[in-house]
Write a structure and sequence with these properties.
Number of strands: 25
Largest sheet: 18 strands, antiparallel
Strand content: over 45%
Radius of gyration: 32 Å
């Protein structure tokens, strides 16, 4: 530009173009054929075949062609551009300046973008985004194009099982042995395809390559057994042991896996029943986890090797950045998102979980209608299939002991000569970063559930029903740090995951009237990360002054609902009530929608009334 010219930033939500809309049509078909019956005086069998198919066709209306958009906004006065004398004929610069005929640089398929360039330049219509109402219909017709995406999934299952007991020829002291055996074959397919322009990244829509993976196939066999050891003897009103096992052979990297469980129930006397169980479960990666092709995506990141960030990570970060060729003085700051590729990982293996439960049920004879139960649970999931974020991959690469790790292999940096899209030396190359799922995370939860119920018919009053459930979460941790797998991220007590929660339901049915009451208690939760204000794994609080003392925790909340019903006639009932009777708002101005704040009610006091009629 001339010395008296300068650039400026222009930001606008281009609502003059149109609204982008999606119209989807979904169809589901399913057919089931089976046979079941009995034999051997009480044994049962069942054989079935099941085929289902789901189809979806989605039209994206009002999509913007990005290559045409960039050509259209680069508009000039033809006369002013060619000879310095304005003539009012505004044209696309690319139509008169060969240097401006540049294909979309961020296209997922640069070859497709280049193949469309000549036609896009020839048809180019300049667009005026300044002001309001200045976008012509001709410009809209040039910029906008409808896109199409089609998907299909299918599932075919053949299964067979047989169950029975040994009552005809053998019994343990507690009764006959029960058993079940079975087998299953399952095959699933998937296909998803966008139109060529959308798949190439030419539109304002994530470019997703065609997804047509190999079929998912698994063959399984299982067996279950129930052993009634004792029954109706002193201190052994019942003693039963149960066990189950399943072997599954998955096509692909998962291969053959085993799942199993075992449990025991002991009733020392009629009013008390104790129970315990251990189980190992597996989840194999699905087709999307394994085979989703790498597609275009975007994220806002901070380069860990920039001078302003290099000192904020692990002690190894600076040395690793230097070893990776990042030049001295490099301090690149992203002002817009980085392009990366996300998809599946064919090297994934199965997730495994181990769970323990221990509990009991108490039904005392001296309080008829009363039941109390308590159950402790401890669940750990290992090798969780998790896709780290773009930022997480970058940080994990340089915060590791050295560059020889799986995260550094997922992206490239520009060399001394810079990158093909104008990246400066040392900068991460656009679309080189791959964000894929990996088996590295762990989840752990423990807690105790308490439940009490009382049902009683009282003369001259009616039937009373009371039920309460109290959940005490003892532990809820995620282990998601790629470079520090033992570092717990505490979720227990954070917004959406209270340590204490209670629900109470009460009703009284008296003649034609029904009175109901429901209460819900949500314990206090931290405003921000629990680690901000509390020590976790011996680490000091991370940000104790993030909020003032009165705002570090969302306070405990009670909700109260009331309802009344009246049976006008045998088949006609009128009802009415009020929810959130005391008009409790979400604390600290939360919306009560989405994220963790969805745990709160967001509609305030709510009255309702209605009737039911049975014909």
């Amino acid at each position: 530009p001339d010395a008296d010219q300068t650039g400026f930033t222009f930001l606008k939500n281009a609502v003059d173009l149109t609204n982008r809309e999606e119209r989807a049509r979904r169809e589901t078909y399913r057919a089931v054929l089976g046979v079941r019956g009995e034999f051997n005086d009480g044994w049962n069998y069942e054989v079935s075949a099941n085929y289902g198919e789901f189809r979806e066709k989605t039209a994206i209306l009002g999509n913007v062609n990005l290559q045409r958009y960039l050509l259209a906004i680069d508009a000039v006065d033809q006369g002013l551009f060619q000879n310095g004398v304005a003539n009012g004929n505004v044209v696309c610069r690319a139509s008169i300046d060969p240097a401006a005929r540049v294909a979309l640089e961020v296209a997922a398929d640069p070859a497709y973008a280049a193949s469309q360039l000549a036609a896009d330049v020839a048809a180019c219509v300049p667009v005026n985004l300044f002001g309001s109402g200045n976008v012509t219909q001709e410009a809209r017709n040039y910029l906008l194009q409808d896109s199409l995406a089609k998907g299909k999934i299918s599932q075919f299952v053949v299964s067979a099982f047989m169950s029975g007991d040994t009552g005809k020829w053998f019994e343990l002291p507690g009764g006959p042995i029960g058993f079940a055996i079975g087998a299953e074959y399952r095959r699933e397919t998937a296909d998803y395809v966008q139109d060529a322009a959308t798949a190439a990244g030419m539109t304002f829509y994530n470019a997703i390559p065609q997804f047509n993976p190999p079929a998912f196939e698994v063959k399984e066999a299982y067996a279950e057994i129930r052993l009634p050891i004792l029954k109706d003897t002193p201190f052994f009103e019942e003693l039963t042991i149960s066990a189950a096992a399943r072997v599954a052979d998955y096509r692909g990297s998962t291969g053959t896996v085993f799942a199993y469980n075992g449990g025991i129930e002991w009733a020392p006397f009629r009013s008390l029943r104790l129970r315990g169980n251990y189980s190992r479960a597996v989840r194999a990666p699905n087709l999307a986890d394994l085979y989703t092709p790498l597609g275009q995506n975007f994220a806002t990141v901070a380069d860990p090797c920039s001078a302003r960030n290099v000192g904020t990570g692990a002690s190894t970060r600076a040395a690793n950045c230097t070893a990776d060729g990042v030049p001295a003085g490099y301090d690149y700051v992203y002002t817009s998102s980085i392009g990366f590729l996300s998809g599946g990982n064919t090297n994934l293996s199965e997730e495994t979980s181990d769970s323990y439960t221990l509990g009991g049920v108490f039904t005392p004879d001296f309080i008829p209608g009363f039941t109390f139960s308590a159950d402790y649970y401890n669940i750990t999931v290992k090798d969780v299939i998790t896709a780290p974020s773009a930022q997480g991959i970058l940080n994990a690469c340089y915060d590791a002991a050295d560059l020889n790790n799986q995260f550094c292999a997922l992206f490239e940096r520009a060399g001394a000569g810079g990158g093909p899209r104008g990246e400066i030396p040392g900068r991460i190359l656009e679309n080189s970063l791959q964000v894929v799922p990996l088996n590295y995370a762990k989840l752990q939860v423990t807690g105790i559930d308490f439940e009490a119920r009382y049902d009683r018919q009282i003369d001259n009053v009616g039937k009373i029903s009371l039920g309460g459930i109290y959940t005490m979460a003892l532990k809820n941790n995620s282990f998601l740090s790629p470079t520090d797998p033992g570092r717990a991220d505490r979720i227990n007590g954070e917004l959406g995951d209270p340590q204490h929660a209670f629900n109470l339901n009460a009703s009284l049915v008296s003649g034609p009237f029904t009175f109901g009451y429901r209460a819900r208690y949500i314990g206090k939760m931290s405003n921000g990360a629990w680690e901000n204000y509390n020590s976790v794994q011996g680490r000091p609080p991370q940000n104790d002054d993030a909020f003032a003392d009165g705002f570090k925790y969302y306070p405990a909340v009670w909700y109260h609902d009331f309802r009344v019903g009246f049976d006008v006639a045998e088949k006609f009932t009128f009802y009415g009530g009020v929810d959130n009777a005391f008009d409790r708002d979400p604390p600290f101005g939360l919306s009560g929608a989405g994220g963790g704040s969805g745990i709160y009610s967001n509609r305030g006091r709510f009255f309702y009334a209605g009737f039911t009629a049975k014909m």
